[in-house]
Amino acid sequence: MAVAPPNPEHAPAVLEARAIHKSFGRMKAVCGLELAVHAGEIYGLVGPDGAGKTTSIRVLAGLMGADAGEARVDGKDPMRDRVAVRERIGYMPQQYSLYGDLTIDENLAFFADMFCLPEKEYRERADRLLALTRLERFRSRRADALSGGMYKKLALSCSLLHRPRLLLLDEPTNGVDPVSRREFWDLLGEFTHEGMAVLISTPYMDEAARCHRVGLMHHGRMLVEGRPGELVRGFPHSVLRAVGGDREGLTARLGVHPRVLALSPAGSRVRVVVERGGEAEVRALISEQGATCEGAVPDFEDLFLARLREEES
Ligand SMILES: Nc1ncnc2c1ncn2[C@@H]1O[C@H](COP(=O)(O)OP(=O)(O)OP(=O)(O)O)[C@@H](O)[C@H]1O
Ligand SMILES: [Mg+2]
């Protein structure tokens, strides 16, 4: 679990983006992105498929030009000062980024060469990263023979070799088992304590809740931004848990109820996010279907689902 430094929002901004727009033909992938990520801060970009997360990250990394807007990494423009920005960022793309037929050591050496790291610095840094990621024992294993979690940790290590000020991670733990995901986050905690800023996109709500701040993106726009805990505390709606009864009938009726903002069935339970003021009505409907109803504490996923539903209606 990432441990928050005292107040990273008061640290200097390493990444700043103002009014970034990017379209592909008529598809507006990013519309007016405003963002600041500070030294020591982990900022999470959350959003459904196609929300514009990857496009935002690519623009901020200087891999793709924006149609409008400005970005700065440590004061440098990613499009104009490409070399300076490349030295300052570590980027882990959503898709495979390593050479599968090279070993762990060879992949690290390749990235060290790319960043022209002096031999001694590279050795020390690689040894430390391999110790932290517990990949030392596998140094001579080819990347395509690594487990999903090990592969991601190697990709993270490669992106950290040159001590970037800003780390851009695009769904780095997608498809990785929960233990490896936790280890990955512990590593991020280590590096942000050293002052690195992290912008990470994730589909996992538990990961979003671990970020210092999160932004919820949808159709290229940022719908909400804030500290996860504060966003959840300010959540205006109620959450109910229906247990037992006729589950099929219940989900069918709740699914079309105008006061229901989100439904998540899990086993014999159904979690229901109810619009403010609609709780009594929905409780009555749940009882009619023979289920018992209890109140639940809202979490980040409830907020995320409700906000998307509000946006779509
Ligand atoms: N190179 C491209 N050419 C055309 N359209 C693109 C291109 N890249 C992205 N898009 C479109 O832009 C929108 C945003 O895509 P993007 O990949 O940024 O979303 P995302 O939030 O990263 O999604 P996911 O969670 O699936 O990775 C989508 O509608 C996508 O189809
Ligand atoms: Mg993406």
Describe this structure in words.
By secondary structure, this protein is of the alpha/beta class. It folds into 2 domains: 8-232, Rossmann fold (3-Layer(aba) Sandwich), CATH 3.40.50; 236-297, Alpha-Beta Plaits (2-Layer Sandwich). Helix content is 36%, strand content 27%. It contains 11 helices and 13 strands. The strands form 3 sheets. Strands 5-6-7-3-8-9 form a 6-stranded mixed β-sheet, with helices on both faces. The two termini are 35 Å apart. Mean pLDDT is 92; it is low at 1-6. The site of magnesium ion (MG) has 4 residues, from helix 1. Magnesium ion is lined by residues 53-54, 94, 170.
Features:
313 residues, alpha/beta, Rossmann fold, Alpha-Beta Plaits, 2 domains, 6-stranded mixed beta sheet, 4-stranded antiparallel beta sheet, globular, binds adenosine-5'-triphosphate, binds magnesium ion
CATH topology of the largest domain: Rossmann fold
Main beta sheet strand tally, sense and closure: 6 strands, mixed
Q: Give the CATH H-level superfamily of the largest domain.
A: P-loop containing nucleotide triphosphate hydrolases
Q: List the ligand species.
A: adenosine-5'-triphosphate, magnesium ion
Task: Give the topology.
Elements: E1 13-24, E2 27-38, E3 42-46, H1 53-60, E4 68-73, H2 82-88, E5 89-92, H3 104-114, H4 119-133, H5 148-160, E6 166-170, H6 178-193, E7 197-201, H7 205-210, E8 213-218, E9 221-226, H8 228-233, E10 238-243, H9 247-255, E11 260-266, E12 269-274, H10 279-288, E13 292-296, H11 300-312
Parallel strand pairs: 3-7, 3-8, 5-6, 6-7
Antiparallel strand pairs: 1-2, 1-4, 8-9, 10-12, 10-13, 11-12
Helix pairs in contact: 3-5, 4-5
